[in-house]
Amino acid sequence: MTLKNRFTPYRLLLVVCVITVGVYGCRAGDTADGLAHTGQVHILFAGDTAFGESYQRVIAQQAGEDILKTRGYDHGFAGLLPLLKRADTTVANLETPVTSLPASPLAGRKSYLHWSDIHAAPAALAKHNIKHLSLANNHTMDYGLQGLKQTLDVLQQNGMETFGAGASAADGARPLALSYKINGHPLRMLVAAGFEYRPVYDRAFRFYAGKDKGGVNAWSIPRAAAQIRALRGENPGAFIIAFPHWGKNYQWKTTGQTALAHALIDSGADLVLGHGAHRLQEIELYHDRWIIYSLGNFVFNAPGRYAEHDGPPFSLAALMAVTEEKGKFDCALSLYPVMSDNRITGYQPRFATKKEFDALYQSILDQSSDPGALKTRIATGQDDVGPFIRLNVTPEPFLAKNV
């Protein structure tokens, strides 16, 4: 199937492929929403999300302020509420196990072991309508298989849908299904995700799922390409979004990210929304398909090391607006820059000012191999949330028909 043919106006199905799932995650064909909407549906894609209990405990031990105890679990969301309230649903990368286990099997072997409170964390996520959680990342297995199992149990009990990790490789690779009706027209989305393959996470940490072993969904280039190719073959008219966790902390993209992103597009993905660097990375148009290399952080309660690195301390919150008009769907993606340096914000991320946005926008253009061409394909603007970059992620609208 050619790239052009993938965007015929007769598309019947919209699939968001964030390569992830859990033992209790939604299976393809399940309905996670099914609600009726008028005019538009808004889906928010958020990057790395973690409440940072392990970091805050260390700060308290050093006579500092544990912001979770003094300000609560809702504190980090306050500046992001305008966008959260606009979204009908939110898909986020939950970069922590949710577990009460007293010790990690990786203690002394892996740095930065995450865990989150089994009561407060899911309550805060649910309160802010963050109910679709990718677990395909480098912290989900910080407390081993028992920690993964408890995470999946706790999140399911609190009404969350998980993807990108599960009881086996097959579980981890299954997409999440979302269904909506816009002006009476059905819209079905499949969401999936994967963590880039890193040998140390395989051999030393045992993070990745296997045929009969629980873990996160591994994305080497061959495996990721095969998963997307299979999904495209099963859903020839679908819109597929890949949601990889990858890259180096606080850095621009790597050559490995570029190779994997291009393989995802070449295998059938229509949009790539990555995360993992704790800050934004490049935006690229490849074969007429958009790649957002990193959304960065959403709410992530670690002090951060932005001052040690030469790069913008900003992330991106991506709001997809799906509009139906005269029987056709159209998708626009608005990228809102978020100040992510907790040492500056007091653990309360906020949207960029116009001055910050202008400098950041120029940095994104400067990182592009063809800034002139990139500039002609993106729009900028500002609304009551803040300044944004807007991308048209459907080159032509597709007809809304019964799925």
UniProtKB/TrEMBL annotation:
**Family indicated by similarity:** Belongs to the CapA family.
The record's keywords, sorted A to Z, are: Ligase
**Listed name of the protein:** Mur ligase, middle domain protein
* BP-aspect Gene Ontology terms: proteolysis
Q: Which GO terms describe its molecular function?
A: aspartic-type endopeptidase activity; ligase activity
UniProt domain Capsule synthesis protein CapA: residue ranges: 42-302
A Pfam family hit: PGA_cap
User: Which PROSITE patterns does the UniProt record give?
Assistant: ASP_PROTEASE, PROKAR_LIPOPROTEIN
Q: Which organism is it from?
A: Desulfosudis oleivorans (strain DSM 6200 / JCM 39069 / Hxd3)
